[in-house]
Fold Acetate kinase.
Amino acid sequence: MNILVINCGSSSLKFQLINAESEEVLAKGLCERIGIDGRLTYQPAGGEKEISEKAMPTHTEAIQFVIDALTNEKTGVVKSLSEIGAVGHRIVHGGEKFASSVVITEEVKKAVEECNDLAPLHNPANLIGVEACEKLMPGTPMVAVFDTAFHQTMPEKAYMYGLPYEYYEKYKVRRYGFHGTSHSYVSKKAAEVMEKAYDEVKTIVCHLGNGASVSAVLNGKSVDTSMGLTPLEGLVMGTRSGDIDPAIMEFIAQKENLDIEGIMNVLNKKSGVFGLSGGISSDFRDLTGAMAEGDKKAKIALEVFAYRVAKYIGAYAAAMNGVDDIVFTAGIGENVSYVREQVCSYLGYLGVELDPDANEKFRGEQGEITKPGCKVRVFVIPTNEELAIARETLALVK
Ligand code: ADP
């Protein structure tokens, strides 16, 4: 069965068509600037990338262009819509309602809508994608795969904040965690690589992309993760601050004459390694480049980033009373050997001994970067959220 995987944002839509049996990507692409003008990037497997400007006033037109591209006589990869058996949608926030993926029904859509408050930038856009697909592909089963679902196994002691209990009761203020599809996919893969049963390992996953989070996966279940009610908590990220003293908000608000919206904008968009580096960049290629040229702020930004990751690893080793393996994934985790080396330099006490050659070698590909026989093994494992969504979708519609 071919499965269309959709990741819908407010003005963009990423897609992949995946043969769920062979797990081959038949085509992939991206619609951008939806509601502004519109641009479609489409690439069939083994074919040329095509970029075309197309009017996309809404997501419905965008999905129609995706379907047209996939079924195009010359460059398409299927003959008709009937060859698309199901659609898997990435949904960011499932609140406490969804601990696993589900087939989308009217009730599911309503329940997702009820989580809009918790992810106002993402969930409404995700739902627009669902509705556009329903309109153009009536009768095709749709599945919702939630970023938060994998972390629903966290115990209360991990997800409750030290706040008045009534905020949890009234507003469901608690830790949810994100990137769940990725944490689940790479932790499972690491167990496979180690030839161990997934429900018998203690794994710490470092998903280090533009957004970044760490998770503690004990016997196949997430027991803690660094992102919280929103993706702002935890690690220092591309432009997000991660953990700070909450009193800084009032202090800076007064000094800089900012309201809550202004402060949130600073914490989400102007902080992280971007802010720390004095605005050089949020991209680690630029930061390592600037550091190599002697830029002090770029160096500090990278040091703070790695130190925070190492502290979370220490915390999660404590939470699980040990750790068998640590996995680096996503853009930075898969590619930036300098960050991995820095992080591992704090982990000798756990029994991590980095193999510098292996660490340099593995970029964007799977490999082990600790020396043979290490007590705690460290892996680079490329994440593949689209494939994970296709697998979940297949399992539910089969
Ligand atoms: P997201 O999905 O959160 O946008 P990614 O997982 O794609 O993030 O990671 C994006 C980040 O990864 C970039 O900002 C960049 O810092 C880093 N990155 C990606 N590829 C490379 C590379 N080849 N070399 C160095 N850094 C990279």
